[in-house]
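Q: For a teaching handout, I want to show students what a protein-ligand complex looks like in token form. Below are the inputs, and the small molecule is zinc ion. Please produce the holo structure.
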Amino acid sequence: MTVLRIVGGSVYDPANGVDGDARDICVRDGKIVAEVPSDAPRLDARGMVVMAGGIDIHAHVAASSVNLARMLLPEEHAADPVLAPRLEPGDVIPRSGSGGTVPSTFTTGYRYAGLGYTTVFDAAVAPISARSTHAQFDDTPIVDGGFFALLGNDEYLLRQIAAGERDRARDYVAWLLGATKAYSIKIVNAGGVELWKRNVREIKSLDDPVGAANVTPRAILETLADAGNALGLPHPVHIHCNNLGLPGNIDITLESMRAVGGRRAHFTHLQFQSYAKPWASAAKQIAEYFASHPEVSGDVGQVMFGPATTVTADGAVEYLLHMSTGRKWINVDIELETGCGIVPYTYRDTAAVAALQWVVGLELFLLSPDPWRLVLSTDHPNGGSFMSYPELIRLLMDRTYRDDHLKRINQKHLAGSALADGLSREYTLSEIAIITRAGPARLLGLKNKGHLGVGAEADVTIYARSSNAAEMFATPRYVIKGGTLVVEEGQLRRAPQGSRLHVSPGYDRAVERDLKKYFDENVSIAFENYPVEL
Ligand SMILES: [Zn+2]
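A: Here is the structure, written as tokens, with zinc ion included.
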């Protein structure tokens, strides 16, 4: 269908200041347009809620690490087999798969679209495995995909910092993003993954040396934040701080924010970075910092009770999780670039730390001074599956439901927490639209996504109203992707291929001669073979 009029829905389009007004949305050739002919096909959305397609700013869906997680968890495949959807005759061949916390590629695309999400970023790709990521995205239908390239422990980058060659470091970043078809820069535990390869588990301060004396987490953060800004990337450097998951890590989290002070930077899954010592919530300190620093953005990384799979470049954290749970795990050193750790995990509301994590995440949302700058994530599948987003939305919108649950969880570490003291805030539909589509689009620099103004991509989700927000957001009635009706009456009917989002910043090509020498001497793949083609 190339032309469509969506008639009379309550439109929540905060980027354009539209807050539930009944109006028509017109679609032509994959874009939102001002008008369509009066005889254009109509979709009756009266009484329903209309939003732009959802945008996931931080998930793990298409990295080589995600494939390792799939291989680690055959029991998930057996427990949640997924039949091929019944697509319209003449559409693409539908594919079966498996679900669980780390669904197979096709199921990942179908399930995101089934929730009304149309764009997803994989937050942590080892550059040398970018080819795998693009292949996985090729098999993840419907959603547009992009990824952030892991650079915070990269040997070539660390060498440039050691040599004081920050301009060359910036040129390297530009080359690497273009060569791998990445979207932005990811830092995971700056310097800490490199130290973990040498059996050091914990960074004491941002000024701990990583090999050479002048290579420190602080220098890595500064260099990459500067590079992201200087290259004019649409999304700034995306930072997973040091000491994730450890009590007292609020200090190094705030110190990291101050270290990149004045530069645009995105701090991810802040819930895992907001703990006082002994165990207590430090969410208030994050909210206060955000209130006075408009250059900083973040996503929450909410923990949801139930099964999860932790997948991260931060192998040191996974070692601790493996030791404390006794569950199976994977640890990989990825050549000279990064690492990877995986441990399946279950968050139980009877467990003291998991209960605190759940509370910290909700406090970050409920104390947030600016929903445009602190957006929704569960760090899928780390804090919980993306399939739990509707339940999370209900927790944010429904205080009674939230407080009932709060009473039933382990109270050991909750003394003095803002949520335990009573937080009355309930997110509005407009605020939900901000934290799930308009905000991520703005933070990612996606000008034609996350809104329903003329010229936007025709990614539209239409929900039947319900007093139960979890029900409402779990089963959108209609989903339109790039002008194609993919979900009709709650059923997946079409599965078009999404597009790939990537950047190719300019750089001084003199860096390539030095890189070629480095590749010849150190890397398992030839310099000429490293770049990927789409
Ligand atoms: Zn993550």
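A: Two things your students might notice: The mean pLDDT is 97. Residues 352-367 form the longest helix (16 residues).
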